[in-house]
Every structure is written in C-alpha cells, then in structure tokens.
Design goal:
By secondary structure, the protein is mostly helical. It is built from six helices and two strands, in the order αααββααα. It has helices spanning about 5-20, 25-35, 35-50, 65-85, 90-100, 105-115; strands at about 55, 60. Strands 1-2 form a two-stranded antiparallel sheet. The longest helix is centred in the middle third of the chain and has 23 residues, at about 65-85. The protein binds zinc ion. This is DtxR family iron (Metal) dependent repressor. Pfam families: Fe_dep_repr_C. InterPro entries: DtxR_MntR_Metal-Reg, Fe_dep_repressor, Fe_dep_repressor_sf, Iron_dep_repressor, WH-like_DNA-bd_sf, WH_DNA-bd_sf.
Length: about 130
C-alpha cells in the first residue's frame, strides 16, 4: 500500500522515537510536525486503521507493516532520483522532482527501474537505498 508524503512524515517521527527505545507520545509527534494534537490524533487513527502504527495508553509504535511502507517510499524516492540524475538532472533537482511523484509510483515499477539502473546501493546524495522484499 502506498504512503502519502504526509503519512511518511508521521511514520518517520514515530520511528525515530521507537529507534531510541521509547514509544512516541501524541504531544511529541504534534510538536515535531508543528500541528495541533487534535490533527495529529486524527491522522494517527487513520494510520492505525491502515495498520501502520499501534497506539496504546503509553504511546505509539510503528508496526512492521509501517516500517515496510517507509522503506518502500524511501526506496522509490532514491531510485527515481538516480534515474533523473542519469538523464541529466542535478541531484538537487532530482530530489525536488522525485518528491512530487515518488509516492505514486507502483512498487513493481520501482523494482524494475532499480534493476534497469544496475541495482545502485546509494542515491545521488550518497544515501543508502533500502532493500525491500515484496
Ligand atoms: Zn531526495
């Protein structure tokens, strides 16, 4: 299932706290994203409905499904960047344009593009391209 950019920003904040060994608090997420706790709550309920996060009284946790969705979108972003640089865009232009449609490109196309490009391990900025399994 594809993630929107906005959903990605939520998942990345939650994952950051989880990676530090703690559950994310609603108020922290709202503050990090500069939005009201009410909007954050609404979006988190939506993400929970999609199975990307789990909420309980002590905080919010990203699920394996959520992590997979994050990796898929990051991979899509970086594969498209690699392609755009290949056809003559600068890395910064490639990043800007990729952000506009990376979330909409089906996983299968990204996988084929990745192969087509010779399975690069890093994007034009030197960031690692996640290895995903579908
Ligand atoms: Zn980028």
């Amino acid at each position: 299932m594809n993630l929107s950019r906005r959903e990605l920003s939520y998942l990345l904040v939650i994952k950051k706290y989880n990676d530090q060994g703690q559950l994310a608090k609603l108020s922290w997420v709202a503050k990090q994203l500069n939005i009201s706790p009410a909007s954050a709550y609404e979006e988190l309920s939506h993400l929970e409905g999609k199975g990307f996060v789990k909420k309980n009284r002590s905080g919010i946790e990203i699920t394996d499904e959520g992590k997979k969705a994050v990796d898929n979108l990051i991979k899509a972003h970086r594969v498209i960047e690699s392609l755009l640089v290949e056809i003559g865009f600068s890395p910064d232009e490639a990043c800007k344009y990729s952000t506009q449609f990376d979330f909409a490109v089906p996983e299968e196309i990204i996988d084929r593009l990745h192969k087509y490009l010779g399975e690069p391990k890093r994007c034009p900025h030197g960031e690692e391209i996640p290895i995903t399994t579908s």
